[in-house]
Amino acid sequence: MYPQVEPYAQGMLEVGDDQQIHWEASGNPNGKPAVVFHGGPGSGSNPRWRQDFDPSHWNLILWDQRGTGKSTPPVSDPATSMKHNTTQHLINDAEKLREHLNIEKWLLAGGSWGSTLILAYAIQHPDRVSEIVIPAVTAGRPEEIEWITRGLGMFFPDHFEAFENGVPEEDRKGNLALAYNRLLNSPDPQVREKAAWDWNKWDLSTITGGDNDFEGTPYEDPVVRYRLARTVTHYWGNDCFLEPTYIMDNLDQLNGIPGVLIHGRNDFGGPLTTAWEIAKRWPDAELVILNDAGHQAKDSNGMSQAITAAVEKFR
């Protein structure tokens, strides 16, 4: 992995709907362009990605999706409307950013929710994509959302019971993400705070495989907890604002675009089957399966090394 260099440029871009997205560029201003689509939804960009790209070779762009990170207005403010925060809005924002930076084509990188957004963007703008690198592959399908909000209960029955009990009884057999989203938009700050705690408690338990009261994680910050919970439930509660099989049905648009899909066999939140199905329908993509990895990129499970190797392949 490479040194985490500081950005050589950054700014705010007006993208319409009274929204401004924050972006930064690091590495070589004249280098090969690459852009990272961060996960969450709602996590904001992570400077750790700079370590996967040789700063002498790549012109790396990181950006915060609407309302996250340094983008404004923040979704962590309950008064901020989510009306203009959908997958199509984010796709359009990425394209406006590319044009603003005078980039003809760029490599797309990102995992989890970022991978869903990458695939949706590439399907619409294949001529603007040079290569794709995706760890922790997801496609935003209803069955994937149902799995992570309910199906995982078979592995975490104790945590799931607490998660399910966090919403009113009449909502417990329905769309849990939407039920939580209603609580997160309550006028009562205590209701919002508890819903953000309960939602993130479930999320972190399924990622780490156990219990954690957020100590030593970004979830310690109540502002981060609320931003993540509100954004994720907004997207998952609305099936990621995509038709159920949109990505799977349009993967032929990626023909000719080389890619690397990296997935952990022990990924509870995003089972390997999605990466497997995408690789079958996208012949130009290589699937790398890591037997000891889960959903997160770590040096210890080989995910970080696999990402760096995939990026190196496309120098």
UniProtKB/TrEMBL annotation:
Matching NCBIfam families: pro_imino_pep_1
Domain AB hydrolase-1: 35-297
Source species taxonomy: Bacteria, Bacillati, Actinomycetota, Actinomycetes, Pseudonocardiales
Gene3D superfamilies the record matches: alpha/beta hydrolase
Pfam families in UniProt: Abhydrolase_1
Keywords: Aminopeptidase, Cytoplasm, Hydrolase, Protease
PANTHER family in the record: PROLINE IMINOPEPTIDASE
Source species: Lentzea roselyniae
Class of enzymatic activity (EC top level): hydrolase
Record keyword DNA repair present: no
EC number(s) reported in the record: 3.4.11.5
Matches recorded under InterPro entries: AB_hydrolase_1 (IPR000073), AB_hydrolase_fold (IPR029058), Peptidase_S33 (IPR002410), Pro_iminopeptidase (IPR005944)
Compartments in which it is found: Cytoplasm
Reaction catalyzed: Release of N-terminal proline from a peptide
Family as reported in the entry's similarity comment: Belongs to the peptidase S33 family.
Keyword Transit peptide: no
The organism's place on the tree of life at top rank: Bacteria
Protein name (Swiss-Prot/TrEMBL): Proline iminopeptidase
A GO MF label: aminopeptidase activity
